[in-house]
Amino acid sequence: MSTPAIRLSGLRKTFGPVEAVAGIDLEITDGEFFSMLGPSGSGKTTVLRMIAGFDRPTAGTVALGGRDVTRLPAYERDVNTVFQDYALFPHLSVIENVEYGLKVRKVPRRERRARAEQALEAVQLAGFGGRKPSAMSGGQRQRVALARALVNRPKVLLLDEPLGALDLKLREQMQVELKQIQRDVGITFVFVTHDQDEALTMSDRVAVFDAGRIAQVGTPEAVYEQPATPFVAGFVGTSNLLTGAAARSLTGRDGTFSVRPEKITIGAEGAPGTVSEVIYAGPVTRFVVDLDAGARMVVVEQNRRTGKAQRGERVQLTWQQEHVIEIGGNRAA
Amino acid sequence: MTRWVLRAVMALGLFFIYVPLLLVLVNSFNGDRTFGWPPHDFTTQWWSAAWRNGGARDALWTSVKAGLGATAIALVLGTMVAFAVQRFQFFGRDTVSLLVVLPIALPGIVTGIALDSAWRSVIAPLGIGKGLFSVIVGHATFCVVTVYNNVLARLRRSGVNLEEASADLGASPFQTFRYITFPMLRSALLAGGLLAFALSFDEIIVTTFTAGPGIQTLPIWIFNNLFRPNQAPVVNVVAAVLIVLSVLPVWLAQRLAGPEAGASRT
Known about the structure:
heterodimer; A: alpha+beta; Rossmann fold; CATH 2.40.50.140; 2 domains; 6-stranded mixed beta sheet; 5-stranded antiparallel beta sheet; 31% strand; globular; B: mainly alpha; MetI-like fold; 12 helices; ABC_transporter-like_CS (chain A); ABC_transporter-like_ATP-bd (chain A); ABC transporter ATP-binding protein (chain A); ATP binding (chain A); ATP-binding (chain A)
């Protein structure tokens, strides 16, 4: 196997008494679209900042392309960052923003202009170079920030919740574009987000962060279908956790199990319960069902038929054995 | 009802502040030697007399030099302290912040006496007598705060994000300062510097205690000539000049600190 683009070993960071990052070992493959997913305060942004060189680790090392850079300042690392608030320089025009990295690296004026124009074209902002960032919309600024980072052709691009400030439509559009750009330029993307949909849609692999540690690393499918801990099961998608007596009566075994809402069918047979909530959401409807066995299940049904269950109605739920996931283990057969 | 009361109070306040100043300006053109009111003659003879007055011209020049000197010191020290306080954590940070701001609130007479005795007992024995330099140092003590406050506010608003972005794009700390930090601070420095200059330019109390022999700033010259009957018309002219020269920098500083600052944070 080739040298990983990024290797983190025993990485820790404490701020006073707070342990923000509590020991992380991770390898990110060259050319990978890698997401760090977790709630705010789970340490994902701190890890990103340590890769970029803004924060010094309390312990552990950061290696880029096989070279230990733990002690190198940010400006000597071959990574670029797209910041959450974009951090565009307000006193410079868009083209000056984009060519900034080339300028400080003493690339001749004509060449850097040409490359900056190209980068703007790549993010569909050709002709906007003369504007000030304050005269651009949120989505356009986001593209400028992307162009400003990509123009330097870094080995690794770090993205710190870059889509957080955009509205839903624009965000979905940018997700597709980002993925496309990443495939085109072929550089490693490390994408920090708290949005599980985003992480699942875009990534080759996802690391789920929980309280300063990585709870699970894997492909989106693995993380979703085989969550390693109850936290992962709950954070990535909605999970219906079955524990204790409910688990025993519904699966016939001891342990912690989860069934995803879309895997459950409301029908004429199966586990009986009462509908306690009906939430209509356009293409789908979510039902909350309290099972007699003592578990609360969320069920998602596509709205393909009329005459669905009402609040307070008695229903029965079925699911296939293969969709019962044992948390921390493999699928229950 | 309350609106009208507030308006009246404001009008009264502004009246008492600005009408006397206006009077000085009008009297500098008043043809009557005893400033009879209302003025019936318009004359520019006091202005030309003031222009020919060597003492006033020297004093003006001294004031400009003192103002520039104090402003220069304030710019360097104020900026450095603002960076230290805003960007670094260290023991006694809040105390330093307070100590820098305090001189503006201290009575000038106390600052003056303190500087006078310090100069006498510590600095003069080193062979540096009082002169223009001691005036500059005295003024700088309270001018630093204007630059400090302006720069601190700007640093607080712009945060470290932009500097991190610059470093991330490969800029050395020096390049970051030159291309990002300094341009962002430029208008704050200008505003702080102009205010510092205006403060120094009309200072009289500290100057009295720190000026060496033969050093006369414009306000001191006015004070010394105020009660000489034949100098009174010229004093009016000099006062009028002083008003204009102090109002201008303050007005510019306000404009610089105002609208553009808000737009920088997006």
